[in-house]
Amino acid sequence: MLKNEFDKNLIEAGCDEAGRGCLAGPVYAAAVILPKSYKNDILNDSKQLNEKTRYQLREQIEKDAIAYAVGIVDNLEIDKINILNASFLAMHRAIESLNIVPELLLIDGNRFKPYKNIQHKCIIKGDSIYMSIAAASILAKTYRDDYMQQIHTKYPQYNWDKNKGYPTKAHRDALQENGTCEYHRLSYRLIDSQLKLF
């Protein structure tokens, strides 16, 4: 079972993002404040869970959380400010949208841009250590997957229903064949010889 809290005296929000390594679509982040004595035996890093379990947990997290929110930065903004800054911005947007102000932010990873005057702690592999970060990883992942599923209907040739914008062989082959579309991150190396928008 994951750890419940980092500091029992502070209101903690776990933060994580999804979609950093994708060639298309936005980056999503979530911030989650869980009750202090929260218990959930199956809650884990979203990457360790199957899709069905992730969606079941999303429902449970949203019911049990004291507060939660999701932040989004689209591909155009990613191209302007780079993916690292976009990930921080998505987290900031999620934190901004919480209806309770946290006193400590638990950030998955090793870097973060401070948000206002709230203290933060970066935790490598935090989504497999702390419940609130794992919960944030599940919300960010499932909401982003929903969005990629939605835009897949507009551009089915890229197989986003399966690859969710990640650089799979099928996605790269589709880029080679069809070029890019409005959702691709043009600042990324999409294929060996960079394609123009059509």
Provide keyphrases for this structure.
alpha/beta; Nucleotidyltransferase, domain 5; 16% strand; 198 residues; 36% helix; 5-stranded mixed beta sheet; globular; 5 strands
Structure description:
The protein contains six helices and five strands; from the N terminus they run ββαβααββααα. It has a five-stranded mixed beta sheet with strand order 3-2-1-4-5. It is α/β, with parallel strands linked by helices and 198 residues long. The chain has helices at residues 51-64, 75-81, 83-97, 131-152, 160-163, 169-178, and strands at residues 12-18, 27-33, 67-73, 104-108, 119-123. It has one domain: Ribonuclease H-like superfamily/Ribonuclease H (Nucleotidyltransferase, domain 5), CATH 3.30.420.10. Helix 1 (51-64) packs across helix 4 and helix 2 (75-81) crosses helix 3 (83-97).
